[in-house]
Write a structure and sequence with these properties.
Chain lengths: 259, 259, 259, 259
């Protein structure tokens, strides 16, 4: 194993594909596997998968320890994801792991925990065309993407989107039915980078689209862990000489450990 | 009651003051009461208090419903704050209530939930002088504050501070011992405004300081609720005529309610 | 004159209205006068106008000194605006005056000087419908505006828009022809607040629209000057005792005034 | 020449070094040459220099065309830099060239043009110690830098610093005399990346410091041009079918070229 490759784990809920024939027709091995498959040919990536119904949702301590970038697709079963696992993933992101949240993952516990907001939006399961406008073409995630690209059919997600102001706004979507959406956005949280990318409703073949694949591949590289810093709240001695206490004498409470 | 006054609730942990004589000497009726007392004379404010050991921590549904701005000071007992109450306060902020988090409140559950990060920092219970530099003098929270103001003794909080990039950075502190800190910062979360303000260690009289009082008073006005919008994720009909479906026939799953 | 009223100056190029009958039909006294007329009834505003062909473009030292918020509509004659006047307006914004830039004012010298970027965009003089989505409903500029509002016909402006990342993004437009645009955005520059608002092509009656009028009125209040701080780069004595120089002796050049 | 190397041009005013013996003692071949010298050993960089007194200040069309990242140190002679050259550099940054502005370059015409603000600050030519705190350790520019690093003597620059809110704030400085400063900050402008880095007064050996060298080297890599996009404001045909004009007939002015 080349330790310089970006260790990438694609997490999928993997339920629709097992219960809905129309989804299985598009993603016979699961959406996570479709995503993993277009990432694997890239020599700088080392790609694994994990799914909800595996033990610990496939996100064991060892897997998380060996993940530089985690991708997340979930939808109907957000509530079945264990809070303990979400806490571990959250901590890993704050320590430096990248996280790419896809489509209905906007309501995943991990995304809501990182954003601190509702993450709600308007939606419509219809046959809107989606046109994603590239508003930050110099961003590494937009590399190779022109002024816009289109998905001939997608679920509509519309503003207002209940997120904190993105640190970087890369794509804004236009929908046939009359809505707009901030569909590609980043946030720095702790030492980790977070990217939300809108497309990917299970009944449409969006993860087979070349532009969607390019954006996700770019995002994996952008979000790769570059530092690993564990949480600490150190009591720190002065770096500079402190003046003698000259004011009224103070009763000082003994130092208590900080939670 | 004038409905146009800003309904302000000052929440205090109110424990140090009951167990530590040196704290009681500075804040005999509690820090929350000291803060409420300098806010009350302002005719546009209507000020109440709430504390940890009251039922529901003093934050009943009725109190929260009737609060435009909540101030929060906690320290040793963050863990004793009920998760259910934190969830309610969180939801109220996202709906539009302002929140002002003071000093050691950086580790309060409600602040961490809104930030999504560790909120950790360096610290030292010492006798540093703190000088707060005003880096955004046109901000309403800095109204009436000059280039800087000083607190002759304060606990040191130092960078790195584990927060998301502030939407607005208003004050940066200099400490005698050699550290700096982003000590006045805002974030927009949902429809609410959040302000974190660093000073206020319980063993120092910072809430008796005229500049600290001015900043907090300004912040209450800045953070006042201006809209109240409840969370919703509506399924939305198209606003524009949609083209007929011309592609391959799609099996459409019935609309499922979104969590 | 009540010194607490917001002194507002509406600047208009006022050329199209004199040479193009279809524009004159919509704005017989000029667009600036239409705008001034809907602002004047507000008791907290004191409203004047200025136009390109007046001496000093109507922006004399006295007018600028007595303006809290300046609105700017220009189009064909950007190049005729004197650089000296632009410099004065620029300095006033940095000192605290608010600036509201309307529609084709995106290419005004003053806007480009404040942004530092191209301010370019896609465009089409057509009959697109424009729907402005409200993505920051708690912002004072969005007060009273619902999820969206529509203009039945407007010139299209499309992304990419060559601006720095807005400090606050309030409106995103959807156009019939398939484009999106960041059509309401703010930037803090020096001690002044800047708001760009997209609608207002001269051949359409957008400044007669109630929602457009509401947004502009809100923006005047939001952008009002609250401080006035002149540029300075002071040589400053230490606030703290400095250690004696203990290193190798340094040749020190005499203090030269900083440009 | 390897086209994948980052073409880096170090621009120096190169005046102090020729007239002030104490500066020449520290930077005998000029500050620009000292900087170029620590960059050159990096195999991924291709490093040239340019100075004020060369024809076109060394920044000919050919040099600018072949520069991915430009570094800028100027001080006393900002006014001698030709406006025409500044315009060319400005345009190149907006097209994608990176720009690293050093120390007194905060008052360079090119930095002021990109920021749109005064860029003023407090200052003191003294022997303050500067301690630069790393507040964004996961940023590529902070790679290899710990919690802080120190410069035993530097000129003091203090807040308020007249800049737009940085897109990313990486370093905050502490000075012995009691001031703080945002001393490492980035802005995205057009398709180019801009980094301002505070240290580097000509009478101190800061560019011989290992940490300063590391930050600048990191910054060159971060700021490298990744796209090259020329300014355009295209008139665009609709992407979607437009409804027939059904409203009152409009006199339409012929399309005029946009300035």
């Amino acid at each position: 194993m080349n330790s310089h490759r970006i260790k990438t784990t694609v997490w999928g809920e993997f339920r629709h594909e097992k219960t809905d024939a129309s989804v299985a027709a598009i993603y016979p091995d699961g959406m996570h596997e479709t995503i993993a498959r277009f990432l694997r040919p890239h020599a700088d990536l080392e790609v694994g998968t994990a799914t909800l119904d595996e033990p610990e949702h496939g996100l064991t301590a060892d897997v998380l320890e060996n993940t530089d970038v985690l991708l997340w697709w979930g939808h109907r079963a957000h509530k079945e994801v264990s809070d303990a696992i979400v806490d571990k993933v959250h901590r890993r992101v704050l320590e430096g792991m990248g996280l790419i949240v896809l489509h209905s993952g906007h309501y995943a516990k991990i995304f809501k925990a990182l954003m601190g907001t509702t993450c709600s939006l308007k939606w419509r399961e219809s046959t809107d065309k989606e046109r994603l406008w590239n508003v930050m073409p110099s961003h590494p995630i937009a590399e190779g993407i022109g002024d816009y690209f289109e998905l001939p059919r997608e679920e509509m997600y519309g503003e207002p989107f209940g997120i904190p102001t993105p640190d970087e706004l890369i794509f804004i979507s236009w929908f046939t039915g009359g809505e707009v959406f901030r569909s590609g956005a980043t946030w720095y949280r702790g030492h980790g980078r977070v990217f939300y990318f809108r497309p990917g409703h299970e009944t449409f073949p969006s993860y087979h689209d070349a532009n969607v694949q390019r954006v996700i591949t770019n995002a994996v590289r952008w979000a790769r862990q570059t530092v690993r810093i564990k949480d600490a709240a150190p009591q720190s001695a002065p770096l500079e000489a402190m003046p003698p206490e000259t004011g009224p004498s103070l009763h000082r409470t003994p130092v208590s450990p900080r939670v």
